[in-house]
Design a protein that fits this description.
By secondary structure, the protein is an alpha/beta fold. The chain contains 16 helices and 14 strands.
Length: about 400
């Protein structure tokens, strides 16, 4: 298979001039403190439609023949690719139909429709591609694959060209990856320049390590909060690029991804979706592993507000800053006050208290469980609060 070349990426960039934004690169002092070297963030979360996907979608549709454009385009996506295809089709004057799972975040469904696409909802993400393929065969519309096409790869690779210009001495680029379109494109643009390119994948649905081990795209099962990279099997085109050009694939857990989202919000003042935070998580989890300067690509910022609430809470828990405890104490006046006093003396901030009297639970008569939700400063502080309560004779368990 012929790989996308730097010249192909440069041609895509010419086609995208005036269509996409050259997104900023901003230094991260917080990550630099962890890694000991310069770390910068490539902010594709600030791109049109909220992610890098407009780059590949526009290049793919722009390269269609007039007859193909007249037939319209169709796509399958949980959100970011849907919005990219919808806007690209609108800008190029062609009709777009997008199949999305009914469980996709409502803001992504609404945004796709607002960009001019006809949205068709099906039950699951797996069914979207089947439905889109059938629609293409039935109507003659061109299927715009989310990652597995050379034009998609070349369009996404324009992110890499911008990085080379914005950070001329870049040594390592860390990129989140699901199907591999963005990773392949950046590698096509940057690997020939001697830059180390690293893919970061959610451990809960990591198809790249077994695929590379097997020497061919391999399907896996799993789940992850990072819906933007929740892809169970790499493509043939992207597999060829990753195998030839990418230096390393690492995986990051759900807690690390949640901490990455929280880190971007708190320290960088950037709203980043879980997929976009995977690269940040990989850098934070692997300090000093790669030569600096390191650029971590924030691939997107489209996140359902309700999911964001849950992710932030998970990030706080993972960082030891949010704790749910169960304390068993004697059901007599003064004991609850004593527990709260000891928590306060240890520096904990009580967020919520639930006083539950046990009846028929097998517990000793005259005892009660108190559920406490606390804010702490980190894992060591949380442990100190538990030690304070345990030292006073209370039975304490984390929930």
């Amino acid at each position: 298979m012929e790989l996308v070349r730097p010249a192909d990426v440069a041609a895509a960039r010419d086609a995208l001039a005036g269509v996409v934004r050259e997104t900023p690169v901003t230094p991260s002092r917080a990550l630099e403190a962890v890694t000991g070297g310069p770390v910068l963030l490539k902010c594709e979360n600030l791109q049109r439609t909220g992610s890098f996907k407009i780059r590949g979608a526009y290049r793919r549709i722009e390269r269609l023949t007039p007859d193909e454009r007249a037939a319209g385009v169709v796509a399958a996506s949980a959100g970011n690719h849907a919005q990219g295809v919808a806007l690209a089709a609108q800008l190029l004057g062609t009709r777009a139909t997008v199949f999305m799972p009914a469980g996709a975040p409502l803001p992504k469904i609404e945004a796709t429709g607002e960009y001019g696409a006809e949205v068709e909802l099906v039950d699951t993400l797996d069914e979207t591609f089947t439905a889109a393929t059938a629609y293409a065969q039935r109507t003659g519309a061109v299927l715009i694959h989310p990652f597995d096409h050379p034009d998609i790869v070349a369009g996404q690779g324009t992110v890499g060209l911008e990085i080379l210009e914005q950070v001329p001495d870049v040594a390592t680029i860390v990129v989140c990856t699901g199907g591999g379109g963005l990773l392949s494109g950046i590698a096509a643009a940057c690997a020939p320049a001697g830059v180390r390119v690293v893919g970061a994948q959610a451990a809960g649905l990591a198809a790249w390590p077994p695929s590379l081990d097997a020497g061919a795209p391999t399907s896996v099962a799993g789940a992850t909060i990072a819906d933007g990279i929740a892809v169970s099997r790499p493509g043939e085109v992207t597999f060829a690029h990753v195998r030839a050009l990418v230096d390393e694939i690492v995986t990051v857990g759900e807690e690390a991804i949640a901490r990455g989202v929280l880190r971007c919000l708190e320290r960088e003042k950037l709203l980043v979706e879980p997929a976009g935070a995977a690269a940040v998580a990989a850098v934070a989890e692997n300090p000093r592993r790669w030569p600096a300067p390191v650029v971590a690509v924030l691939s997107g910022g489209n996140v359902d507000p309700m999911l964001l609430v849950d992710i932030v809470r998970r990030g706080l828990v993972a960082a030891g800053r949010y704790a749910a405890l169960r304390v068993r104490l004697t059901d007599r006046p003064g004991y609850l006050a004593d527990v709260l006093r000891r928590v306060g003396r240890a520096g904990g901030n009580v967020v919520d208290v639930e006083h539950r009297r046990l009846t028929g639970s097998g517990a000793a008569p005259g005892t009660v469980d108190v559920a406490l939700t606390l804010e702490a400063r980190g894992h060591d502080h949380r442990a100190a609060i538990l030690a304070e309560l345990a030292g006073a004779g209370y039975e304490v368990a984390g929930e």
